[in-house]
Amino acid sequence: MNVETKITDGIAVVTIDNPPVNALNLAMRNALLETVHTLNADAKVRAVVLRGAGKLFVGGADITEFDRPVEEPALPEVLAAIEASKKPWIAALHGVALGGGLELALACHLRIAASGTSLGLPEVGLGIIPGAGGTQRLPRLIGIEAAIPVVTTRKRLDENQALKLGLVDSLSSGDLTADAIALARKAASGPLPATAAKRSLAAPSPEIWRDAEAAVRRTAKGTAAPMLALQALRLGVENGFEAGLAHERATILKARASQESKALRYLFFAERAAPRPRELRDVNTRPLRRIGVIGGGTMGTGITAALRNAGLPVVLMERDEAILNHSLGKLKKLFQGDAAKGRLSAEEAGQRTAGIEGALTFDRLADCDLVIEAVFEDLAVKQSVFAELGRACRPDAILATNTSYIDPRLIAEGLADKTRFLGLHFFSPAHVMKLLEIIPVPETAGDVLATAFVLARTLDKMPVRAGICDGFIGNRILRRYIAEATALMTDGVAIPAIDAAMREFGLAMGPFEMQDMAGLDISFMRREAARARGEPVPEVPADLLVRAGRKGQKTGGGWYDYAPGDRTPLPSPGAMRIIAPMLKPSREMPSAEIAARLVSAMSKEGERVLAEGIAAEPAHIDLVEVHGYGFPRWRGGPMFMAQGGAHHG
Ligand code: T1G
Can you give the pTM of this predicted structure? Predict the structure, then answer.
């Protein structure tokens, strides 16, 4: 970790070297400030090139320092020293320049970027705003309109967009440092280029602010930081650079201490740790070149699409031609839909479809490295599939089940070699939902488990290792959440009030709206199956609804009524009449109390999940909730909330 300077023919090349992302921690700030003073005082030095060692320029301030009071020199002081230098400083950008890293570049006199560079101010994603001049210097280079989405939505700019907007002054043709030195020489031989701070900033029309505020309200999803960032931009335009800087600084210092920021920082580190479990880091993995998927239903096609989106060739197997063609047709439409929405080119959509081979027999899976079973949730059916796979696939091929409820140990019973078997629980729609529960059985080999995490990273999924119990981590906590919501309802609290409370809390929909969307019959059949096995499963109000033909949106009514072709939940006197015998007299409950009850039920179940070793740490449960069940990111998760928002960096 250091800041190294090399001076050649009057040009100083300063390299920031703090692996893995050159974060600007206290030591780096001290070293940089000292370097600025040294070079300013060195008469031999006519200009300075600032670069980052390794794969990128600078990934930002050091987020691990945010739980502590700011230690001087703070970044603004370092940047002010560079900006005040009478010698041109040229920022040589490659990989990424994010947050404080971009702010460092903005304080320089000129910027040059290599191909493939990504520039941004993603601070709102951490519940803060740029705190070292980003909201003031960026608009003075690229204008307010272009700066608004970068500062309020984490929009990234590539080098070409940056050049076009004036954020960078030139692009490197290959050797970035050499090109930067050439630019420095040129700058040193002319008048000192004006820094961003000295550039004028035209005030935009009032409509721009009005539209920006509306856009921030629409996209902020309950987080406060985007509006704070917009306000800092505006204040700088209306009150000038220095006033803007002071306001920005005061805002970030306050935002750093907020629950929202603590929650988002907690998730930042949890999301970086989960895909690379420490215990698997040195384990060799098996190749993933060709993947088989069995079952062309909703999950099978979703998984196939996710694999294709990651560039993996897929063999999709179904029982009969008609079903297979239907599944292949669905996938073709899905990729064409992505092309129509501009997410893919028509050619890419064609390639995605072409990379799927349809199959009707197990022998076609013989050379797959991994086969994922996604057939109907029936133990006997799954066991027969794995018996076939055990015969048809290479001995080193990994065999996985996408079951969401059945004990994987039972599914693997007929399998001769269980070391190559595990559960890979995708969430619907599997090509969209980030969460992947990875469920090893006792026999699962280390390299098989490690390979599953490689698959998750390849698919850009958030993997969480889960132990075996009914519902693994996510569905087990969901069941507890639903049970608590049902208890509130039978206790007299109105269904729309419970759902409204959870929407207010930050969920896209409440527990009853969600059940109606998913269908009440799925869990009803599970309860009925348990009752048939002689298990004492008490009658619940949902049973009365299903028996009355109310299965949710798909039957035009469940907890709510739905007009034909409309998914808007309408309070249902009919449903209330059916479940009335199970309800106590109605009563009011404040939204916050409803939400607290439900979230506390989730975290208590989470405690049990931890105690049983089904999850290794609280953060894993929170990742499941955030990436699989729509728990609002800015709240961190039920376990984080139960810990009083304590954030362990
Ligand atoms: N501070 C501390 N640690 C960081 C870090 C940071 N800014 N960025 C990454 N790490 C750690 C990360 O936890 C992981 O650790 C390792 O580095 C590799 O990260 C004043 C206040 C830069 C695009 O929001 O987006 O500047 O798990 O796996 O995929 O206005 O990291 O190995 O122990 O993500 O190559 C603003 C955050 C900060 C960017 C690289 N900056 N970082 O991606 O590696 S706030 C950000 C990223 C700020 C100023 C404000 C990505 C990356 P470990 P990784 P990667």
Answer: 0.95
